[in-house]
Every structure is written in C-alpha cells, then in structure tokens.
User: Which sequence fits this backbone?
C-alpha cells in the first residue's frame, strides 16, 4: 500500500514525455523502473474523499493532487478498506518530495550539468556564435507532437513579457521537426521572442538528449545554471528563478 500511495503521488506531480520506453521514478523506498505498459492508466470514474468526507470526482482531486501538497491515504474506517482520503502533506514532506522531483528531472551527463561551461559548438552550426555572446541563453528542446513541451509555451511567453522582453535574453527553440512543421506549431502556440532552430537533431544528439522537453539556462559566461528534462510542477517556476538570477533581476 505504501508503494502504491508513493507511486500515485509521484505520477500525479511528475510527468515526463520521453522517447525511450522506460520511465524511472525514485521514491523514498528506492528506484522504480516502469515500462510503458506498466504505468497505471487513470480511472476517471474513481472517487476519492477529502478529510471532511466529501466525495471528489477526478477533475476535482486531480487538480488538488497536482499541487504536490496532498497525498492519498487509506481511510481510517476499516469497514471501507478501499476508501482513499486526500490529506495535506506536512512542510517537511513537501520539501522532501520537491527534492525528489528536482533530483529526478535534473540533467547530469558529461556534456550538460549545472556548473559546467556550455559547449556552444553544437549550436554554432545553426546559429551565429557572436549572437550568443554576453547573453543569457534559454534553450528549449521540443517537438510538435509533444504536448508536454508546447503546453508550457504560453506561460514562458507571459514570463518573458513580464520581464520586459530583455535584449540580453536569447531564447532558442530547438526542435527535431522540419521547418514547416515547427513554424505551423509555433503559430498555434507561440513562444515569445524565440529564435527557431528546426531540424536540430544534430544538436540534441551532440548533447545526448533523448527525452523531451529539455530546458537549459546558461548565464552570460555560458555557465549552465539550470538543466532539466521532462515536466513537473516545479519545472517552470525553477526555470523562472534561474533566468531571473542569470539576468541579475
């Protein structure tokens, strides 16, 4: 039961769109590797309850669980062993799960990791190096069929507008799609001030990215300050923090 509760909580707050078929989740009890067919499918008819006993439908409890501040526990009523109750996590538990999520999404390869100087060579085949100098660079790796990638474009665009469209922030939208597919998608879901690099598989391959989305923030000295793969409730808030810090805001 403890395994199922932990897994359900992690699946609620941690979502990866990956090209490989194995998903690895690190839990407080160890590491779980799930093949695609093993990942539980959502039962939208399932009913859970809040701490006051009110029944919650999927659209209600899904939103609550995705905040990352709640978990599912068995009801104390032993006559109803299948009844699950949504309870609020303690601050210590929230911090622990936040650390778990950050560790699970962090990129740490020989080519890309926080604190490493970004190797611009893979990018220079598609973008002029002098235009990357003395810039905070936000790289976003995506593809049109990845809804987890493009659904964040509006929030990122609003953030860039809020910053005042800084001239020293360079946004590179790097996709494996060809130009026509990428341009069409960006018309549907714009990414503010982004420079498009289409047919960019060579860049992804050079950095050895096989899962998407990928977000990388490097400062004006090309030091990587933020590098994550996948999407969680912490991804964009942490990205905003990294960009602001790199810009000195």
Assistant:
């Amino acid at each position: 039961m403890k395994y199922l509760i932990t897994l359900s909580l992690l699946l609620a707050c941690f979502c990866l769109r990956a090209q490989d078929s194995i998903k690895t989740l690190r839990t407080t009890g160890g590491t779980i590797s799930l093949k695609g067919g093993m990942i539980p499918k959502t039962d939208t008819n399932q009913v859970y309850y809040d701490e006051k006993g009110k029944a919650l439908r999927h659209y209600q409890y899904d939103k609550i669980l995705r905040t990352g501040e709640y978990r599912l526990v068995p009801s104390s009523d032993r006559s109803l062993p299948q009844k699950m109750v949504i309870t609020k996590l303690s601050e210590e538990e929230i911090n622990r799960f936040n650390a778990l999520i950050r560790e699970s999404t962090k990129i740490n390869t020989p080519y890309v990791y926080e604190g490493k100087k970004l190797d611009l060579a893979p990018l220079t085949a598609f973008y002029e190096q002098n235009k990357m100098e003395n810039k905070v660079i936000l790289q976003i790796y995506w593809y049109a069929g990845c809804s987890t990638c493009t659904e964040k474009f509006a929030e990122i665009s609003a953030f860039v507008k809020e910053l005042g469209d800084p001239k020293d922030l360079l946004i590179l939208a790097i996709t494996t799609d060809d130009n026509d597919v990428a341009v069409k998608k960006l018309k549907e879901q714009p990414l503010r001030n982004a420079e498009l690099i289409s047919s960019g598989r060579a860049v992804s391959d050079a950095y050895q990215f096989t899962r998407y989305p990928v977000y990388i923030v490097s400062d004006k000295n090309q030091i990587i300050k933020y590098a994550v793969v996948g999407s969680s409730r912490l991804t964009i808030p942490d990205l905003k923090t990294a960009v602001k810090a790199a810009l000195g805001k």
In short: Residues 1-40 have pLDDT under 50 and may be disordered. The longest helix spans residues 91-105.
